[in-house]
Amino acid sequence: MKLLVLGGTVFLSRAVAAEAVRRGHDVTCACRGASGSVPSGARLLTWDRGAGEPPPPEVTALGADAVVDVARHPSWVRAAVDAVAQAHWVFVSTINVYADNATPGGRPGTLPLVEAVHTDEDPASGPEVYGAMKVGCEAAVVGGAASSTIVRPGLIAGPGDPSGRFTYWPLRLAEGGDTLAGGAPTDVVQVIDVRDLAAWIVTCAERRTTGVLDGVGPAVPVGDLLAEVAHGIGSDATLTWVPDDVLADAGVEPWAGAHGLPLWLPRPAYDGMLSHDVEPSYAAGLVTRPVAETARDTLGWAREHPDGPRTGLSREHERRVLAAWATTRK
């Protein structure tokens, strides 16, 4: 298979290119080439979509059988689809396209979408704008490509994570001691290893799978997930669960940021965001590994890259919250 990866130097798109090369496919990565190298065995075709460059003639001349794109700007996707319309497209979208974050067990076709935005906006404006642009990108792919798979991932974890959200937990639990955890251990969450998602994307390209699927791992109680993280890295840390309202009063923010607690989401407003139905994706060929393995490998990568991306509240902030909670419970 001739595979065109639009990207190929960072996290998911790089993992896709590497997996396709491993399977013996002819892989070309079209990108700026400024964020890192493409995997060994893949070719780099320089194309700076962010600068408004039109598709180079080589993109069409490749005669790609399949294309994988992770873009978030509708104009980028429309131009690429027009240039390689004959191929099967696997477009990486996001669960941020869903307007309903409260209903557990949702999947494509059962949850409403946010209204599409077909113009290029600043994705830093927030998840709503990001999700709306992704809906616009999906429409461009479905309406223009010969056939397509739309994959909507949730929280992607693993080595190379540019968000640092999952990475917070292997690093924190490796330090041991009393560790702040948010909400209740029964709150349901789900993560997916970047390598498993990449392998499935390549499979969808090979099979020319059609339709819309969520790229998520199994939904499990967060207490179980963090226990598996601790097991994977050999940690004996103790988790102290602090309620949502106490965390909010203490200046702890959900999900990410300098004051954030990754994997914590206020309930019940976000009961559905990380509890999608994964069975249709498993039926379409998705295979996921244990979170313990993801945690072990993520910790190893994070230690090799001490200046890598990080998010989450400081240890001093965590200590203050834990001390205040201990006082409250006396």
Descriptive overview:
The protein has 330 residues and is of the alpha/beta class. It has two domains: 2-153, 3-Layer(aba) Sandwich (Rossmann fold); 168-190 and 219-276 and 289-329, UDP-galactose 4-epimerase, domain 1. Helix content is 36%, strand content 18%. It is built from eleven helices and 15 strands. Strands 3-2-1-4-5-6-11 form a seven-stranded parallel β-sheet, with helices on both faces. A two-stranded parallel sheet has the order 7-10. Strands 8-13 form a two-stranded parallel sheet. Strand 5 (88-92), helix 4 (127-144) and strand 6 form a beta-alpha-beta unit. The protein starts with a strand and ends with a helix. 48% of the residues are buried.
How many domains? The number is 2
Q: Name the CATH superfamily assignment of the largest domain.
A: NAD(P)-binding Rossmann-like Domain
Beta-strand segment tally: 15
In CATH terms, what is the architecture of the largest domain?
Answer: 3-Layer(aba) Sandwich
Lateral strand order in the biggest sheet: 3-2-1-4-5-6-11
Helix content: 25-40%
